[in-house]
Structure formats: structure tokens, C-alpha cells
Amino acid sequence: MAVDREPAVIKRVSPQYPSIAREAGAEGTVLVEVVVGIDGRVTSARVLTSNTVRALEEEALRAALQWLFTPGMQRDRPV
User: How many angstroms separate the CA atoms of 35 and 27, rounded?
Assistant: First the structure.
């Protein structure tokens, strides 16, 4: 959907490093896609790409679901 103004981050939540992943020495990158509702809350999140273990992916999703945004705007209406 095209918007006049993209959503902007209001609140970021950093993922916590799960102890099982720390003990295993796991590290990597997880790219998460989120859908932002008209109220600015994340309505869904999914892993797009990852090069790490499941525990870190799950923690990235948990954190992403807590982010808060200004909603995207189209013609002065939240979308």
C-alpha cells in the first residue's frame, strides 16, 4: 500500500540474549518484517532471513512485537 507518510518508530525494544544461545556461543543476524496497524502497534511479525539459531529468531520476534510506531498516513488518515 502506498502511503503519504511512512510509520515512524516511537518505542524500540531490544531482543534479550537467551541464555541457551549465549551458552552455545550462537550469534547472527535476523531480519524481521512487521505489519503496523492504524494504532501504531505491530499486528504481526515474521522472520524474513536469518543465519542463526531458532532461539535468537524467536527472541527477535518477541522484541519486534513490542515496538510502537506512529501509523502510516494516507490523505491525512491512518493506514
Answer: 26
pLDDT digits (tens, 9 = 90+) for 58-76: 999 999 999 999 988 899 8
Q: In 2-43, which residue ranges form alpha helices assigned H by DSSP?
A: 19-24
Grid cell listed for 27: 550469534
CA-wise closest residue to 74 among 38, 50, 34: 38
Phi-psi category of residue 67: left, alpha or beta, with phi > 0 → left and psi -120 to 50 → alpha:
beta
Q: What is the grid cell recorded at 79?
A: 493506514
Q: Please state the pTM of the whole predicted model.
A: 0.88
